[in-house]
Design a protein that fits this description.
This protein is an alpha/beta fold. It is built from 15 helices and eleven strands. The protein has helices at residues 10-30, 42-49, 60-71, 93-104, 116-133, 147-162, 180-188, 209-221, 244-254, 311-316, 324-330, 349-358, 360-382, 409-426, 453-477, and strands at residues 140-144, 170-175, 196-199, 225-232, 257-261, 286-289, 302-306, 387-394, 397-402, 432-436, 439-445. The chain has a seven-stranded mixed β-sheet, with helices on both faces. A four-stranded antiparallel β-sheet has the order 8-9-11-10.
């Protein structure tokens, strides 16, 4: 080891690599037998990990062993087959190797001059995704860190195209089920709260088209500039897909930009049973898609697509003197001209490798499997006493709650929160709550191809037990140990 040059010997590198790979292989192979979640306290983590920066180095093999024992055991595994909270990231081992190679070779993929082959792989992979979504050949895209950055990129581009620098009267419309990253993007761009209008959703948690029309007409009559409608193609809460086709034509009628947030749900288009639900996505001006969700990739990998060719470059390209050689020599395609980042890693290698090795048919079967499992979950819940399905299974998402007969709404909320707390303490599966029209509900997002029917069955069995445990817990807190029968 030559510390002053930050180098390891060839033999040291090989031994460390074997140690790390063995650790990853064991983790992936044994993941289903582990707890899905582990949430230690801040105090516990400070005692374990807080320290002054070391002046002298340590043995790297001991450090990797420390990571295995004390760091990677104190996180929740979003690729666990029983991680059903938020939107999981199922990932796959091959893609992890892709990240290792991209990082190990230190590929800079911000311009063609420094990364011609890597840029072409990304362009090819973008074309594959465009084809899956049915977007026009002329549409362009860029890989970014995730849905938040993709949504920000879309709104910047929409504002540039339709409003320019004078956006004080511009109005953005979205559903009350739209992801919070878009509201954050609007705030970052300087739009006031009054310029970001949430349209109520209907009983299916889809954007209410009639309400949208009325709001647009009213704002136009008051001399505002309606310029963008955000739609959901797989809302995070429920998996709902808005009426994309109808909204697209409303946008065309009023000269507005239509953005489709398909970050999580877009992958469902691979299931032939779902294709009709995505009708109209090909008319969108911009689309967000997150391969690090239902395309089974590690973090961070999001995608933004823009229908009008050249618009990304028009929006983001700035050419300082120190980049003129990169523009002159590698101007065929420089990713730093197509988004916010200048420094940019080889993002698409992991996804490209996955498609090359597994093939698209394997992805289609994986997505269909998850949709089937969500529907199977709904069937089981319908047979369980004291449980009610709040939203039917939609593209891998289902909402439900524990509500014994006679339970008031406030009591039901406390019971379901208590159930989640008990499940988190148990660690067997990861489930969280959400709120729908004032109801606190349990939400399962089932998008891991390695999840089995048995995983679903045992998770629901535990939830059933925790339902009655939550009653006991709440009654004890109230100092009342009466039986469950009054529920």
């Amino acid at each position: 080891m030559i510390k002053e040059r930050l180098e390891l010997t060839k033999e040291e590198m090989r031994k460390l690599g074997y140690q790390a790979i063995d650790m990853l292989v064991d983790h992936h192979s044994e993941l289903a037998e582990k707890q899905s979640s582990n949430v230690p306290s801040k105090k516990e983590m400070e005692l374990l990990l807080s320290e002054q920066i070391p002046l002298k180095g340590c043995d790297p093999r001991e450090l990797i062993s420390f990571l295995e024992k004390d760091v990677f055991t104190n996180v929740s595994y979003t690729n666990h087959p029983r991680f059903f909270a938020f939107v999981p990231t199922p990932s796959n081992y091959l893609s992890a190797l892709g990240d290792l190679l991209a990082s190990g070779y230190t590929v800079f993929n911000g311009n063609w001059l420094e990364g011609a082959a890597s840029a072409q792989i990304e362009l090819t992979t973008i074309d594959w995704l465009k084809d899956m979504l049915g977007l026009a050949d002329a549409a362009e895209g860029n890989f970014v860190s995730g849905g938040s950055m993709a949504n920000l990129t879309a709104l910047v581009t929409a504002r540039t195209k339709l409003l320019g620098d004078k956006f004080q009267k511009g109005i953005i419309y979205c559903s009350d089920q739209t992801h919070s990253s878009l509201e954050k993007a609007a705030r970052i761009l300087g739009f006031k709260k009054s310029q970001y209008k949430k349209i109520r959703s209907n009983n299916n948690y889809e954007l209410d088209v009639n309400h949208l029309k009325k709001e647009i007409e009213q704002d136009k009559s008051q001399d505002f500039e309606p310029f963008c409608v955000i739609t959901n193609a797989g809302a995070t809460n429920t998996g709902a897909i808005d009426s994309l086709d109808e909204i697209a034509w409303i946008c065309r009628e009023h000269g507005m930009w239509m953005h489709v947030d398909a970050a999580f749900g877009g992958a469902a288009i691979l299931d032939d049973r779902m294709k009709d639900r995505f009708k109209g996505i090909e008319l969108a001006d911009s689309v967000t898609l997150d391969p690090h969700k239902w395309f089974f990739q590690p973090y961070e990998l999001g995608t933004i697509f823009i229908r009008e060719k050249g618009l990304l470059k028009k929006t983001f390209s700035i050419l300082p003197e120190y980049l003129k050689d990169a523009d002159r020599i590698g101007g065929e395609y420089n990713f730093f001209d197509y988004g916010i980042q200048l420094t940019r890693d080889f993002k698409a290698l992991k996804l490209w490798m996955s498609f090359k090795v597994f093939g698209l048919n394997a992805f289609k079967k994986a997505v269909a499997h998850c949709i089937d499992l969500a529907e199977y979950t709904e069937e089981l819940l319908q047979e369980m006493n004291n449980w009610e399905v709040v939203t039917k299974a939609k593209i891998g998402v289902i909402n439900f709650r524990f509500r014994p007969d006679g339970t008031l709404e406030e009591e039901a909320s406390k019971l379901n929160q208590a159930i989640v707390d008990l499940m988190l303490e148990d660690g067997y599966a990861m489930i969280t709550t959400t709120e729908l029209k004032g109801m606190k509900v349990l939400r399962m997002c089932i998008i891991n191809p390695r999840t089995t029917k048995k995983d679903i069955e045992t998770t629901l069995k535990k939830l059933g037990w925790f339902g009655f445990e939550s009653i006991r817990k709440i009654r004890l807190e109230k100092g009342n140990s009466n039986s469950y029968q009054t529920y």
